[in-house]
């Protein structure tokens, strides 16, 4: 027993000493690597916070709109000279004259034609239509003097929000000095007030910033996503099930898988060119319609849904399939009754992420004409429409300061939708995910 050598004495002492000497250096390198990763995350979060705050600072004011209080006499001689309260006659009356008369009573000293025109320009061009709608809704107002809050013009709105300063040289201002004096008089008389901008969420696009809204673009996005989801989800799930569960492993299926992976990386504008050539030029479907937009986005999101669906099916343990087949289930029953319900949460997560990507796309839709100026709210998938990202693109191209804040506000709304959709995907994954 005295000839036995302990194992630790067999280890080369030089190697052990070198390893022990390198440990502090290796630990320091690992610590530096962690710090680099943490610093990269912090830099990314700071950049994201700066971007979000910049958008928020520029866009939050768009949720408020300046209004002017006017005491309007609903003159029967102008609105309803016949006295029959005919809705057609009421709709065609000169409500603009009533508003001009109200402003003239507030500022009786304004006599010059140019100044009168500039005085009337303080209110929005949509104010007569708002007054018309109110009279149509309540004809009993005819013959009475009522105080109504009308939408102010974009320049007045910018002034009350601090973007136009009255102390700057008149040559550099969009408003004259006497217009600033009129606004100060209205403010002193408590006739200027900022109210929540409901028109932003209820109107379509407009050439006038104070009348522009995002509801037309939101409706267009909704119809487009409905078409996309109705086509891409069933086709994507069926393709994923076939490729993962039933397709034979040969060159053809390998070629299909490679092409699906390649299509997921194709620039989105290529799908727009394909939609322009096939759906519009060949099939002659309505240009600038949610139907064509949904078809184009279906082509773009299908690879994403198929790949996510196959990954979800692969995550189901083989024992589930073997157990179902062992008790006599057919391959189709095994997939539909056992595998698919377990993989469905992952498939839905992939579908929601694909829909979120489709919601934020603009390049393919520009190619099929959804960049058109659309005022009316679309009522179906065949009506001319635009979508929220394209609406943001159109407003961002406008030089007026009032459209800058509306661009940022529309971005905030789009980000809210994207966050909700991605949050829903995370919830579904956490709520229904099975760990094996």
Describe the structure.
The protein has 436 residues and is mainly alpha-helical. The protein starts with 12 loop residues before the first helix and ends with a helix. It has a three-stranded antiparallel beta sheet with strand order 2-1-3. Helix content is 63%, strand content 5%. Helix 4 (95-106) packs across helix 6, helix 9 (215-246) packs antiparallel against helix 14 (331-359) and helix 9 (215-246) packs across helix 16. 31% of the residues are buried. It has helices at 13-59, 76-79, 87-91, 95-106, 113-120, 127-137, 154-160, 177-188, 215-246, 251-263, 268-280, 290-314, 318-326, 331-359, 363-367, 388-396, 401-432, and strands at residues 64-73, 145-151, 192-196. The mean pLDDT is 88. It has 17 helices and three strands. The chain folds into two domains: 64-196, no CATH class; 215-432, MetI-like fold.
How would you name the CATH homologous superfamily of the largest domain?
A: MetI-like
From N to C, what is the helix and strand string?
HEHHHHHEHHEHHHHHHHHH
Any idea of the CATH topology of the largest domain? MetI-like fold
**Number of helical segments with 4 or more residues:** 17
Report how far apart the termini are: 52 Å
Q: What share of the residues does DSSP label as strand, in percent? A: 5-15%
Number of domain modules: 2
